[in-house]
Amino acid sequence: MSDNITSQFFNTYAVDFNAIYGNNHNLWNSFINLHFRKSMKLRLFKTLEGCNPSDNAKIIDIGCGPGHYCVALAKKNVDSITGVDFASEMIEIAQQKAISEGVEAKCKFICNDFMTITFNETFDYSIVMGFMDYVDDPEALIEKVLSITSKKAFFSFPLDGGFLAWKRKIKYKNRCKLFLYKYNEIEKLFENKDFSRFEIEKISRDAFVTIYK
Questions:
Q1: Going by DSSP bridges, is the β-strand pair 57-62/78-85 parallel, antiparallel, or unpaired?
Q2: Residue 6 has pLDDT above 50, yes or no
Q3: 77-104: string of b/e by CB count within 10 Å (b at 16+)?
Q4: pLDDT over 50 at 117, yes or no
């Protein structure tokens, strides 16, 4: 799904993106987090809650970025977690983060385009957070995610409309492709797919989708 422009952008953006999840809680960052990054915090919380890591799960994080989800889950009762990202700088940060937190034995990081990888295993939980924003063919990606998932898959979709969506369009206009969604477009993507049920919940500027296999 990736192209060179998108990959280059996220390699350049890796350090700044990692800092979004950081602990620098000064007044300005607190304001930004409250008003512009709320959805990022909410989807992290909901994913960690939904993975139920007490059952020794195997997890894959698609578009893992700097590894925040991977490291947070590895600290719980998880057998293994695989992080995939096409940006080498993101993967390097994720590997260092896992080492610094002492969970590198549970974490495997792959620098590649998810759509080009052949998986010979399935995962209890698949995480696709902050990733559909940049996918040219969302239906093909959803099909592949569902094919390797045995319990639940979690997706976030950036919602179109409103000031924040307009602001993102301007920000990314000359950087990389950006895809925003209406609710009915998200529902249509999951029609006639191989799962038992799904839920869509609005969390700030994102739609959080949970798939139950």
A1: parallel
A2: no
A3: ebebbbbbbbbebbbbbbbebbeeeebb
A4: yes
Nearest of 39, 101, 111 to residue 68 by alpha carbon: 101
- pTM for the model stands at 0.81
Tokens representing 167 are: 């602001």
Q: What is the pLDDT of residues 88-104, one digit of tens each?
A: 999 999 999 999 999 99
With 0-12 / 13-18 / 19 or more C-beta atoms within 10 angstroms meaning exposed / middle / buried, residue 66 is buried
Q: Going by C-beta distance under 8 Å and a sequence separation of 6 or more, which residues neighbour residue 10?
A: 17, 65, 85, 86, 87, 89, 90, 176
Quick one: which H or E segment has residue 57?
strand 57-62
Q: How far is Cα 110 from Cα 75, in angstroms, rounded to an integer?
A: 20
- Tell me the two tokens of residue 159: 């919602």
* Domain enclosing residue 170, as ranges: 4-212
Our count of domains for the chain comes to 1
CATH number for position 37 = 3.40.50.150
* Dihedrals phi, psi of 64, to nearest 5 degrees: -70, -15
| pLDDT tens column, 18-73 | 444 554 444 434 434 444 467 788 888 899 999 876 678 999 999 999 999 999 99
Contacts of residue 166, Cβ cutoff 8 Å, sequence gap at least 6: none
